[in-house]
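C-alpha cells please, single chain.
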Amino acid sequence: MLYLRFMNRAVVSLILAVLCVSCAPPPPSRMEFVLGTLCSVNLFERGTAAEYDAVFARFREIQGIMAFTGAEDTDLDLINLNAGLRPAAVPGELLDVLEQARRYAELSGGAFDPTIGPLVRLWGIGGESPRIPGAAEIEKALDLVDWRDLVIDRAAGTAFLRRRGQSLDLGAIAKGYAADQAAVILGRDRPAIIDLGGNILALGERQGRENWRIGVQDPLEDRGNYLGVLGVKNKSVVTSGNYERYFEEGGLRYHHILSTDDGYPVRNGLLSVTIVADRSIDADALSTVCFALGPEEGLALVEALPNTEAVFVREDRVVILSSGAPFTLTGEGYSLMPTSSSSNTR
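Here you go.
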C-alpha cells in the first residue's frame, strides 16, 4: 500500500552555501522519502544533480497520481471517492498502470487484485493501528474486492469502480512503474541502481561488464542478512515476503499480503518470493502474485512467462528456483530443491 506523507522542511537560502554546492562534484547517489518508502538512486560517478532532480521529481509526480490518501489529493483518490457514482477522468499513465494491474488480476485468477483497498484499510497493516478485524467485517470488505468491477474507458480517459465502497490500492505495482520511469529518464544502458524500498532495478552492467550482485534477504534474519545472491544485468529484482510489513498478536504474525479468498494474510508455507524480470512493473506485480498463489502455482506461472525468473523461500528453509534463475545460495540452514529438467521448456 502506498502512503502519502508530507514532511515540513525549513528552506534556508544562504548565498555562500549555494556557491559552495555549485562548485562541488555531484553526489554518487541520492536518497529521499517518497512513494511511501525510502528511495535511493545511485548513478555512481557519472550522475549529475540535474539527473537526480529529474528522477525524484518524477517519483513525486507519480506519488501525486497513484497514492491513496483517503482525501482528494491524488487521481487514485478521485476514482475511489467516485466509486459507484461516476467515472473519474484521470491521466493516461494511471490508466496504463490500472490496465497492467487488471492483466495480472486476470492472469492470477484474482489472487492479485487492485480493488483490494477495503481489506487493506480494514487490517491497517503498515499503519499506526493495525488490528485483527472481526469475521463479519472481513466478509463485508471481501465482498467489495473484485477486479472485474474496474471499468477503464480509454476513449473517454476515465476509470470507474462499479460499487459504492470499493477502492483501489496500487501498492503492489506502482513502485515498479516508478522504477521503470526512472529508467526512461536515465536510459537503460548506463550503470545505475534504483532502489525503491527494496524494489531494485539494476541498469546496465558493473564496471568490467560484470553482473550486478543483488542480495536476497533472509526472511528469518535482520535486514542486510542475505540467504543468496542474484547476478543480473538490466533486470529488476523485487521481493515480497511476510517479514516486510506485519504485526504480531497471540504469538501469530499477521503480514500485509492479504488473500482474496478468505480476507486474511496469505498462509501457504512461503516466507518470500523474489522475481527477476526485464520490467520492474512486472517484477513488482509478480512477486505479490506468486506469493499469493503459492510455490506450485506460482512457479508454473513464472515458467510460462518469457524472461522471468523466481526464487521461492519456504517456511521449512527450502529454496525453490525457476529453471533459469541466476541465483547462488549462500545462507546457512537453507537447502535448494532440485530443479526439474522438464521445466526447462520455455
